[in-house]
Write a structure and sequence with these properties.
By secondary structure, this protein is mainly beta. The protein is 6% helix and 48% strand. It has one helix and 25 strands.
Length: 330
């Protein structure tokens, strides 16, 4: 049962989010100057590790990685293909939203792939000795239902790993939910999948009821999941947010959902979605994609970034900065 605490926390998230959207985005006064958009692309996965920054992205039927000494430097860094899929397999095509993770001392990439047919999209895991590759295919990462799955990410909590992804409830399209399962290792799920979030609110159902692109955000012991909502091909694509309230992390009743979208579009920054996070000692950043012009859907997405403002322990993102905005990045 949805707890009273979760209800009041949802209201708290809503009030803080609304406050954050009314405040101007604060940009740092030092670092490397950058102009938005940073570069073309979709589903950006940025990662910082030991002072080095990485951008992991799709490369047709494979995955590529950029590296730079600064976050701003990723815009012009050279892409290296770290994995190319063979032909004639169930994972030969349509590589979507790859994520690069360093877990238990090893490097892993989680990516959705299929055989050319969308209904066969599943999550796969690659393993490499270094973030620059090469990576090798470990195999499919799925629970016992083995149903359609995309946008998988890893959530870490109390020294345990959990896989969170977007999937279909059964074998037909029409709605995408968020699911979570426990991982026995970075390459294996060892529990059933548990429903975490369904798209039930209006801002989650434009174009189609969709929750996808989950990304974990941590601060002072708190755990958040920020996810994309509504159809990514629409101008109404946006971000929603869940906060873990304690207890069993696979129980959806232990997550409070903000009743409103936490990040919505504006002129020259339409349909913001599918984010990742870079957290530094000085500042935390959200990285996301958005469109310059209305009605351009999947064809004109570009990568943006801006600082996160924390209010009462809640991350707020304000409004997406318009194209042409200048800011400083680490």
């Amino acid at each position: 049962m949805y707890t009273v605490f979760s209800f009041f926390l949802s209201v708290h998230l809503l009030l803080v989010t609304l406050l954050g959207q009314c405040l101007p985005v604060k940009t740092a006064a030092d670092g490397t100057p950058a102009t938005l958009p940073l570069h073309g692309g979709a589903d950006p996965w940025y990662l910082e590790r030991d002072g080095v920054y990485y951008y992991c992205h799709s490369a047709g039927n494979g995955v590529a990685v950029r590296r730079a000494d600064s976050m701003a430097g990723l815009a012009d860094a050279e892409s290296t293909v770290v994995y190319r899929a063979p032909e004639g397999t169930m994972w030969s095509s349509n590589y979507w939203a790859p994520e690069l993770h360093c877990l238990n001392g090893g490097w892993y990439i989680y990516v959705a792939a299929d055989d050319g047919n969308n209904e066969n999209h599943r999550m796969y895991v690659l393993r490499g000795d270094t973030p620059d590759g090469p990576f090798t295919m470990v195999g499919k990462l799925c629970d016992e239902t083995d149903r359609w799955a995309i946008d998988g990410t890893v959530l870490q909590y109390e020294n345990e790993l959990y896989f969170v992804w977007s999937g279909w409830e059964a074998d037909a399209d029409g709605q995408q939910n968020l699911y979570i399962a426990h991982m026995s290792s970075p390459t294996e799920i060892d529990s059933p999948r548990y429903l975490l979030s369904e798209p039930t609110r209006k801002w989650e159902t434009n174009g189609m009821p969709i929750n996808e692109g989950p990304a974990a955000l941590y601060k002072d012991g708190r755990v958040y999941l920020v996810y994309s909502a509504s159809g990514s091909w629409t101008d109404d694509y946006c971000l929603g947010m869940l906060r873990f309230t304690g207890g069993d992390i696979t129980d959806k009743n232990n997550w409070a959902k903000c009743p409103a979208a936490v990040f919505t579009g504006r002129d020259t920054a339409l349909a913001p979605g599918h984010c990742s996070f870079v957290q530094t000692e000085k500042e935390d950043y959200i990285v996301y994609h958005a469109n310059l012009d209305p009605g351009t859907g999947w064809n004109a997405r570009s990568v943006r970034a801006q600082p996160i403002r924390w209010i009462c322990g809640v991350p707020t993102f304000g409004k997406p900065l318009p194209a042409g905005s200048e800011l400083y990045l680490p």
